[in-house]
Amino acid sequence: MRTSLLSRRAVLAGTAATAALTTVPCLPGRAHAADGGARAAAPAYRWRNAVMGGTGFITGVLFHPSVRGLAYARTDIGGAYRWEDRLGRWTPLTDHLGWDDWNLLGVESMAVDPAHPDRLFLALGTYAQSWAGNGAVLRSEDRGTTWQRTDLTVKLGANEDGRGCGERLLVDPRDSDTLWLGTRHDGLLKSTDRGATWKAAPFPATPSTTGQGITLLVAAGRAVYAGWGDSDGTAPNLYRTTDGTSWQAVPGRPTGTAAKVPVRAAYDRQTRELYVTYADAPGPNGQSDGSVHKLCTANGKWTEVTPVEPGGTTSDGSADTFGYGGVAVDARRPGTVVVSTNNRWAAVDTVHRSTDGGRTWTSLKDTAVFDVSETPYLTWGGDKPKFGWWIQALALDPFDSRHIVYGTGATLYGTRDLRNWAPQIRGLEEASVVQLVSPPAGQAHLLSGSRDIGVMYHESLTASPSRGMATDPVFGSATGLAQAALKPSYVVRTGWGDHGNGAWSNDGGQTWQPFAAQPSIAKDAPGPIAVNADGTVLLWSFVHWDGTKHPTYRSADNGATWTEVTSFPKGATPVADPADPTRFYAYDTGTGTLHASTDEGATFTARASGLASGDNQFKLAAAPGRSGDLWLSLKWHGLYRSTDGGAGFTKVSSCWASYCLGFGKAADGASYPAIYQVGSTEDSTAVHRSDDEAKTWVRINDDQHQWGWIGETITGDPRVYGRVYLATNGRGVQYGEPV
């Protein structure tokens, strides 16, 4: 299918053309020759993370009560992990979940069995919305190395409000075969066969379709306590069972706004006291009031032990509003407990520690010394890191009283002396990645753009970028990242930021300068950006987060001035020709039309029409080093190719869905770049590589490396044959190399 390079006139001659159809197999796991020839075995690949270090919300950490050095962590969209001190890193446990199970990468809760150290249980389900699938329970007898699965008939919500609340899954303290699972909208579930089957269990509170339902389950001796998140602050919000059959409201509980939602609870078995943190909302956002109380389970007496009451003012006059989040007790020292504030933006969150049952407290933030040299992005473009935010996951090592960890919206901090803190995050990568560029030259083989932490320059794939996140300006989320094909030192990026929404670099992305000006719509709807081949023209598209499409703007002076391109289809993503600086392309999914420009993006005209329309996920990619060689990847309609600058397209059949596509260095003896694709066939959705212009494909991932939803973007390395970079929604950048 290789064609010679055509002149600009030949490539763009003619008017709109309807896509023709040819047959090119695209089967996972093996290669098929287009003429029915021999099948090739799938190559062996090694998959690893391009290290960033956390970058996502750690919603729970659970030390095993009977095994020293063993802990588990859960995340809202990136699966679960196991920590072992002897390895000094986290091991991902749910990468085997594939495309169809993307909704299970959010971990609602986890549970261990104190009497059987190798048992682990996970309750999975990212969203409880009608469009999301039901939840599932995974159970393991080998600490998460292998799993058995039970699909539920209810939905869970690991990435919804309340995701930082306590564990909703619990092994019954009287019977290891019995498990409890609290849900958001379907009450209480119970299993008597170690999680293999589940049935509804009687519970006094009535679930709603919009509330929080059960926020926590915790064992206190032989009793089990359940928090209820749908109380108005006066109705019962904490229940207890002592026989595993009937539940009663706990008498004498605190009331009022500051004790509306029980967020987390921890039981001190030495003093027989149950500590409960409360807030006026489940969090992690939206909390403005809260408190901490303890219940003496021996006599039923409640005592308020709130370290600091919300509602004061800071030195600059800001309202010091917040709730309380995490709580953990010391298994070796009676009366030693730690709690965290949450959603405290004015005075910044902290962890309080008490050694006398909550009578007095010390804020660990006041003496904290941070070392983030391993993950420099945690300075957030400033001189030093903050203590953190969204602190709801808080755990105290049962074998080491000075070992405390707490999760934030970006990392997991740990201390072993109560003063010096550092990220305890090795192996745990949760970035939701949306942009990838692999430069053809320079120090870095990878630039990445993600939600929450903007753009990173990866001078190494095995260490967090030394420059941290790109600054000048800082972006909370990247929306565009592009490199000039003939001048790779020039890179541009766009995203959501408080001090500008676009920037350019002349050193390959190591340092940045903000655009001197930007269209007014940029602050409300920053979208993707493209730069032509020689770096002289920018096209910036604008799409609001709610889907509203706005005009695209052009700059020919490095962002100093911008002019609306009225002929550019609103909402489309601009794509630069990699060989000819005068050409840009855009695919309008609303009409199924390819548009092209031959005057450096000043005007666009329709080329091929009659292409698939309405596809809500698509990518138009230009093959490197070639002019007019375009590939159109469509979620619902497969893969198309044009060799004439978009005048006509040919369909690559047998690949009924193509989610994203990119290019890398050609194989030895091949004249065309390697093509990498996330695509679907009758068998599966998988990662593929083709070395012969899509005549044949091989699957290069395997069943243990699937990472849920992986359809955002993919690119090969132009300097290393076989290396591919894959964006995931919650497992960072995965990169694979032939073994």
Automatic annotation (TrEMBL):
Superkingdom of the organism of origin: Bacteria
Key words of the record: Carbohydrate metabolism, Glycosidase, Hydrolase, Polysaccharide degradation, Signal
CDD domains to which the protein is assigned, alphabetical: Sialidase_non-viral (cd15482)
SUPFAM superfamilies in the cross-refs: Oligoxyloglucan reducing end-specific cellobiohydrolase
Signal peptide as annotated in the record: none
PROSITE patterns: TAT (PS51318)
InterPro entries in the record: TAT_signal (IPR006311), WD40/YVTN_repeat-like_dom_sf (IPR015943), Xyloglucanase_GH74 (IPR052025)
Family: Belongs to the glycosyl hydrolase 74 family.
UniProt name for this protein: 1,4-beta-glucanase
Protein species of origin: Streptomyces bullii
